[in-house]
Design a protein that fits this description.
Structural class: alpha+beta
Shape: globular
Number of strands: 4
Helix content: 25-40%
Number of domains: 2
Distance between the termini: 47 Å
Strand order of the largest sheet: 1-4-3-2
Order of helices and strands: HHEHEEE
CATH topology of the largest domain: 2,3-Dihydroxybiphenyl 1,2-Dioxygenase, domain 1
CATH superfamily of the largest domain: 2,3-Dihydroxybiphenyl 1,2-Dioxygenase, domain 1
Length: 89
């Protein structure tokens, strides 16, 4: 059982959750997405967000301020979703 779960629990770019998760939770919502969101720290959030658009990434969340800095979320078919973060200094 452990090996099967480990193989299927890798983050996938898919609209369907892994079989083991579907059976554990029942029917999955249509908009299922992985919950893992890696962050990459950058010097300038605006420049970094714009830089991701050039190779074709979609910006899912434009830069916005939070309590400890600014972040945006980008997505590409190859890399999945990644948050870009600039800490407050």
């Amino acid at each position: 059982m452990g090996g099967s779960i480990a193989r299927e629990s890798l983050v996938k770019s898919s609209s369907v959750p892994p079989r083991w998760l579907s059976s554990a939770l029942g029917a999955a919502p249509r908009s299922w997405r992985p919950l893992w969101l890696p962050y990459a720290e950058v010097e300038r959030i605006g420049d970094a967000t714009e830089h991701t658009r050039r190779p074709g990434a979609a910006v899912l969340l434009e830069p916005r301020e939070g309590p400890s800095g600014w972040r945006s979320v980008v997505s590409s078919p190859v890399a999945g979703e990644v948050a870009v973060w600039e800490p407050k200094r």
